[in-house]
Specification:
Elements (H helix, E strand, L loop, with lengths): L10 E4 L8 H15 L9 H4 L4 H11 L6 H13 L42 H10 L6 E5 L2 H9 L3 E4 L15 E2 L24 E11 L7 H5 L12 H6 L3 E9 L3 E10 L10 E6 L11 E11 L7 H18 L3 H4 L19
Parallel strand pairs: 1-2, 2-3, 3-4
Antiparallel strand pairs: 5-9, 6-7, 6-9, 7-8
Helix pairs in contact: 3-4
The structure holds adenosine-5'-diphosphate, riboflavin and magnesium ion.
Enzyme class: transferase
GO molecular function: ATP binding; hydrolase activity; riboflavin kinase activity
Keywords: ATP-binding, Flavoprotein, FMN, Hydrolase, Kinase, Nucleotide-binding, Transferase
Length: about 350
């Protein structure tokens, strides 16, 4: 992680769509339903091209990619009201709540809110950011922009501001080279690096979250966990968990695991593409912090994920990857003893067993 001292700022400018709010999520849900009408199936094509585009530009891509029998304008006029109907379904992106003062509420957490309709040119023009600096009477060089899109990053740099990119394009962080820092999600935002007051939500190397749950039978993975690393991971299928996974960034998490017929154990887990191995598919790989005498493929495993440790990283050697995973293990093992986390050992989700007999739990 680049821990170099950054330029100090006094003002933070947050992009909204795609940075704080998961607007693409509802657009994709609407598209899925819409394509069915034309006998087409959403297959993820176009998802990358929607991000950072104007609605019309994105529409052009979809009409073309799916060979829809209508003009771009017809498409836009049909899809726009369908999306508007879904606004109430928009969710905050992971970590967005760290930037909100919950005593004040969303709107009141910002000194100024400015819309794209208040400027003449959109990003990558710096106009919107320069307008903010002007209205707040702050020098642009003292502003930190937080952006998910490439045009947004370009706009921030063109305004002479510092820019943290939180790419909304999965595995595309290399396209954001002009940003001053690229982070995986707002969970990794460190205001103190920029001379701002630090968040105080980390506890002993962990960021607590409301418990979330994943479960299913233990599946076969790549077969290299225990063999290559000495770190067996009881892989779970990602099928059926696309919504949950889209609500949580890839990274290293920990919590409590219920293994049917065996018991409840601590675990530390990676969710994502394992940059070191550059997997094409996202995997869910919990390492149960217990020595088992045998494998338990096919057994029902339920996870209560209670906190976050770090983003997935690449490593220059296998040894350094292993060393890091052992550090994760120590952090999880210690943190789970804190009452804050210990109480979730009693999470009822861990005791649900498909095998009926829960008496031993
Ligand atoms: P795979 O690639 O098939 O996941 P691994 O080398 O990661 O293979 O080994 C994982 C398997 O090892 C699990 O599915 C489980 O049956 C077994 N196992 C034994 N001990 C543990 C443990 N402490 N945590 C997770 N899995 C374990
Ligand atoms: N793989 C990576 O490429 N980068 C990581 O940062 C990383 N962190 C991990 C953290 C934990 C706690 C665990 C259990 C695994 C992690 N792995 C990571 C995944 C590791 O590469 C994986 O278990 C092997 O690929 C086995 O399939
Ligand atoms: Mg595994």
């Amino acid at each position: 992680m680049a821990n170099s001292l950054k330029k100090l700022v006094s003002c933070v400018i947050l992009d909204l769509d795609g940075t704080l709010l998961n607007t693409d999520g509802i657009v994709i849900e609407v598209l899925k339903g819409y394509l069915v009408k034309y006998g087409k199936r959403w297959d993820g094509r176009g998802a990358h091209s929607i991000v950072g585009k104007t609605p019309r530009e994105a529409a052009a891509v979809i009409v073309e990619d799916y060979g829809l029998p209508l003009s771009i304008d017809e498409f836009v006029s049909e899809i726009t009201p369908m999306c508007s109907d879904q606004w109430f379904n928009i969710k905050a992106l992971p970590g967005a709540n760290r930037l909100i003062n919950h005593l004040k509420g969303w709107k009141e957490s910002f000194s100024l809110i400015i819309g794209g309709d208040e400027v003449t040119v959109g990003k990558p023009s710096p106009e919107i950011f320069l307008e903010v600096a002007k209205r707040l009477n702050v020098d642009p060089s003292k502003c930190l922009v937080i952006e998910d899109s490439i045009p947004g990053v370009m706009a921030g740099k063109a305004a002479g501001m510092e820019v943290v990119a939180v790419p909304s394009l999965t595995k595309q962080s290399h396209l954001y080279t002009s940003a001053d820092e690229v982070i995986n999600s707002l969970l990794d935002l460190q205001p103190a690096k920029w001379g701002l007051p630090p968040f105080e939500d980390w506890i002993e190397g962990t960021l607590p979250n409301e418990p979330w749950h994943i479960g299913g039978p233990v599946t076969k993975g790549f077969g290299r966990g225990s063999k290559v690393l000495g770190i067996p991971t009881a892989n779970l299928s990602t099928e059926g968990y696309s919504t949950v996974l889209s609500e949580h960034p890839s990274g290293v998490y920990f919590g409590w695991a219920g293994l049917s017929t065996r018991g409840i154990y601590k675990f530390v887990m990676s969710i994502g593409w394992n940059p070191y191995f550059n997997n094409a598919e996202k995997t869910i790989e919990p390492w149960l912090l217990h020595d088992f005498e045998e494998d338990f493929y096919g057994e029902e495993l339920h996870l209560a994920i209670v906190g976050y440790i770090r983003p997935e990283a690449n490593f220059s050697s296998l040894e350094s990857l292993i060393e890091k995973i052992h550090e994760d293990r120590r952090i999880a093992e210690t943190a789970l003893e804190l009452s804050l986390y210990l109480k979730y050992r009693e999470d009822p989700y861990l005791k649900i067993s498909l095998h009926g007999d829960n008496s031993h739990l």
